[in-house]
Amino acid sequence: MAETPDSRVRDPVFDKNGEDSDGSSSANSNNTPNSEISQSDSPISKNAGSRFPVDARAKSRRLAATLTLEEQVSLLVAADFWRSKAIPEKGIPAFKTSDGPNGARGAIFKAGTKAALFPCGISLAATWNTKLLHDVGQHLADETRARSADVLLAPTVCLHRGPLGGRNFESFSEDPYLTGKLAASYIKGLQGKGIAATIKHFVGNEQETHRMKIDSIIGERPLRELYLKPFEIAIRDSNPWAVMTSYNLINGVHADMHNQTLQKILRGEWGYDGLVMSDWGGVNSIVESIVEGCDIEMPTSPNWRGEKARQAVLDGRLSKEAVEKAVANILYLVERTKGSDMSAELPEREDDRPETRKLIRDLGAEGLTLLKNEGNVLPIKPAQKKIAVIGPNANRAIAGGGGSASLNPYYNTLPLDSIKAVPGREVTYSVGCHTYKWLPLAAEYCTTASGEAGVSLEFYIGDKFEGSPKVIQHRTNTDLFLWDSVPLEATSVWSCHCKTQITPRTSGRHTISFSSVGPGRLYVNGKLMMDLWDWTEQGEAMFDGSKDFLFDVDMKAGVPVELVAKINNEVRPASRQKTVNLTHQNGGCRIGYKEEDKQDYLQEAVDAAKAADVAVVIVGLDEEWESEGYDRQTMDLPKDGSQDRLVEAVLSANPKTIVVNQSGSPVTMPWADRVPAIIQGWYQGQEAGNALADVLFGIKNPSGKLPTTFPKRLQDNPTYHNWPGENMKVVYGEGLYIGYRHYERMAIAPLFAFGHGLSYTTFTYGKPSISSTVLSSSGKVTVTIPVMNSGSVIGAETVQAYIHDEKSRLPRPEKELQAFDKVRLVPGETKDAVLVLDKFSVGYYDTDLKAWIAEVGVFEVLVGASSADIRAKTSFEVKESFTWIF
Ligand code: BGC
Q1: Looking at ligand 1, which residue's alpha carbon is closest to its atom 7?
Q2: Cα of 404 from ligand 1 centre, angstroms
């Protein structure tokens, strides 16, 4: 009997965003070395180097066949939150996975082992530099190994379908070719050092709203030509060892059990022989998911596999062959990453290397995108001594987006500090306005009774705080996400006192916020101030948490206030217990704190701008506004116009105003026409501040180009009528036309076009030459174009080649990116940009033929500095139509 997703009780695993979660899995805190969490004793192990015998595939198949059915089904589900199961008696070690795309976080979600924080996906993509992406992969391999992991859960290659996608920052681009090529380089770098890449999320996961239940309705051409394309390119070019399925459904069927995408396309047409793993909690059936090829369920869960899968085999609902195939794929990954190294896993460690720091800083300048620079306001000139640094993001670490891509960085560099570090300048600072989505975390004001910075967590067995605490843990953060780090048995029922004291810096009526995952009560100086024991209103974030509730308390500067949060891990809202079939699950809470505002921030900023030679306004979003788990509600800068008012006010006070916008996706810039200089600052990881200062002062020349179109208004974007869907369905109604494909077809001028990005120098394009005017099915056509640095400083230019199909049977976008080359030039120097095209550059998917086709006719090659700035044209011909599958 087929199990449809709707006919079953959902898997009690987790949806970390909390909005439509039906359950959760147990967490397993295995090891927290070097983290901000105090240590619990745990066994851990030595990581193996990579070994990859030639006959590894055959060996894995043979080994799979020798296992008992019990052993086989035991391998089909993870052992804990991050690891596969080991069968030591059969010489099978476990592999350990780690998030994620811009750093290897290790086994603790929040405040774990410190790690290198790279620029986020879209910032990496803005470099358009495949060589650098390869370097990123190599450095990430070392970082992954330092976390004692073997498999990195990256890269993320879902496309930017619309500007509001919560995880757009984490993925590369709106364009499948750019995404695929960058992913392939990253994967080659990573796997070249023996760490498995896990390309994700396969497929159709372009939004976070209802991500576990949303049905992405996608036509076959957009599915093939856009959303599957980055996976196809990466598999062809770099063969990632693992693929992660997405949470959503695709045209009515969940991704983990989707015959067309997993069996027919991935395994069949593309001949993929690696491992397919589920997203965390993304398995939706016992039988179909295994049959269709989702080999391993992550993380551990009692619901779908193990004994249930064994029973399905015994009942004849599931074939032994299907089980064995999945096991062979799992063993193949084990073989590729660990061989038969059974030595114990080593503790996670830090590995903060100067060469990684340098790479991250270089990636910064290569990705910073100069959107506008009227009158060469940038770089800031030596004579401009007085600099007013203004804005809510100027004195904060805006280093990454939120969710599984986040980690605990080795360090942060703040724009203000890095600007101040440039010699010979007088720097003033004003915040200008607030933008927080939730009250800022209380952590920096918190100390425990023993005087340590942070919070003490006293864990009791059972949910009633009885007896004496079983474990006392110390944390520095008041974002007390506990799913993967409760120092008790994974399935425990527990209760916990979270104790700390806040020492105010000023006297006033200050605000405290509290939200809780399970039942929670917050006491201030012994008095119950917030009772969320039976909360029913779910918040947006907080991984299944309640809404954030605020209250005010009168406090005196320097006089500590005692806070105790009493929480346990009973499921809330209580009504959810039936759906998840569990009474206890995760727990945790978040404590925020903010002191009363007594200044006029806007006026301060205006005064500072007036007194300065130049004003640098650093605005944008942050990891609370842009995160896994939810989408943005608006393209406007938060909050309620405060940042736009700030920019306008500063601009009126000082015409030499430079705006830096830090975000992982487009924002509305109602002031863009009037501000002379705008830098798109992305989230640039641990070197964000230094990289920005390098560019502001012309120490480095920025060379980023937009990997995504910045529209003028949200209403202009292609998904406007179909976002985020209704009744759990989202129709990809714009079909083939996302990003620049849409803006061009509709003749809607964007604010900044795809591929756009300026430099402190200028580039002159020469006349293109073409190696052949005919493209055959196995041939290549190379377009070469000389590019001269016609300005006065060293710079790099990304030359882009778009294909325009003059005539085709089925409609096609006006132009599609099919090649790019980045050339670095000293002033006066000329170099050739080389753009190589082949059959994949001209093909589209014909749904009647069920194949890719290169149609007879002429193809124009549009060579440009952006999708909207075409500098030269040439063309070639396909003499006779031909088709192919992969
Ligand atoms: C995310 C994945 C991530 C996994 C493990 C999921 O919620 O969608 O991208 O790798 O969690 O943290």
Answers
A1: 280
A2: 6
Name every residue whose Cβ is closer than 8 Å to that of residue 311 and which is 6 or more positions away in sequence.
none
The pocket around ligand 1, CB under 6 angstroms, is made up of: 16, 99-100, 153, 200, 279-280, 404
d(CA 639, CA 527): 33
Asked if pLDDT for residue 1 goes beyond 70, the answer is: no
Ligand 1 mean position to 122 CA, how many Å?
A: 18
Q: Determine the residue type at 730.
A: V
pLDDT at 54: 55
User: If residue 202 lies in a helix (H) or strand (E), which one and from where to where?
Assistant: strand 196-202
Task: Give the relative orientation of helices 130-146 and 354-367 as an angle to the nearest 10 degrees.
Answer: 140
Atom 6 (ligand 1): residue with closest C-alpha?
Answer: 280
**Residue 519: which domain range?**
443-594
How many structural domains is the chain composed of?
A: 4
Rounded to 5 degrees, what are φ and ψ at 714? -55, -40
Residue 475: inside a domain: yes
* Cβ 728 vs Cβ 210: under 8 Å: yes
In 3D space, the residue among 445, 456, 546 whose CA is nearest the CA of residue 496 turns out to be: 456
Distance 125 CA to ligand 1 centre (A): 21
Nearest atom in ligand 1 to the alpha carbon of residue 299 is: 5
Q: Whose CA is nearest to atom 4 of ligand 1?
A: 280
Atom number of ligand 1 nearest to Cα 16: 7
Measured CA to CA, the distance from residue 63 to residue 89 in angstroms comes to 13
The predicted-structure confidence for 173-214, as pLDDT tens digits, reads as follows 999 999 999 999 999 999 999 999 999 999 999 999 999 999
279 carries an active-site annotation: yes
Structural contact between residues 149 and 33, judged by C-beta atoms closer than 8 angstroms: no
Q: Which of 80, 99, 279, 295 is catalytic?
A: 279
Based on the fold, state whether residues 193 and 289 are members of the same structural domain.
yes
721 occurs within a structural domain? no
Q: pLDDT (tens digit, 9 = 90+) per residue, 103-162?
A: 999 998 888 999 999 999 999 999 999 999 999 999 999 999 999 999 999 999 999 999
* Domain-terminating residue out of 664, 679, 705: 705
Nearest atom (ligand 1) to Cα of 247: 8
Atom of ligand 1 nearest to the CA of 100: 10
Indicate if 232 and 330 belong to the same structural domain: yes
CA 105–ligand 1 middle distance (angstroms): 12
Give the model's pLDDT for residue 110: 82
End-to-end CA distance of the chain: 33
Q: Is residue 755 part of a domain?
A: no
> Ligand 1 centre from 98 Cα, in Å?
10
Q: Are strands 242-245 and 275-277 parallel, antiparallel or unpaired?
A: parallel
Query: In ligand 1, which atom is closest to the CA atom of 205?
Result: 8
Give me ligand 1 centre to Cα 106, in Å: 13
Asked whether the bond before 573 is cis by omega within 30 degrees of 0, the reply is yes
Q: What is the CATH number of the domain that holds 518?
A: 2.60.120.260
| pLDDT, tens digit (0-9, with 9 covering 90-100), for 456-474 | 999 999 999 999 999 999 9
Q: Give the strands of the sheet with 242-245, arranged side by side.
A: 97-98, 151-152, 196-202, 242-245, 275-277
Residues 344 and 341: their CA atoms lie apart, in Å, by 9
How far is the C-alpha of 771 from the C-alpha of 264, rounded, in Å?
Answer: 37
* Contact predicate 275/76, CB 8 Å: no
CATH code, domain with 366: 3.40.50.1700
Question: What are the tokens at 446?
Answer: 């918190």
Alpha carbons within 13 angstroms on the beta-carbon side of residue 168 total: 31
Cβ contact 84:95 at 8 Å: yes
pTM: 0.92
Gap between the Cα atoms of 404 and 109, Å rounded: 7
Name the residue of 81, 200, 404 whose CB sits within 8 Å of the most ligand 1 atoms, as the mutation to test its pocket.
404
Burial class (CB in 10 A: 0-12, 13-18, 19+), 468: exposed
Strands 151-152, 196-202: pairing kind: parallel
Ligand 1 atom 9, closest CA: 404
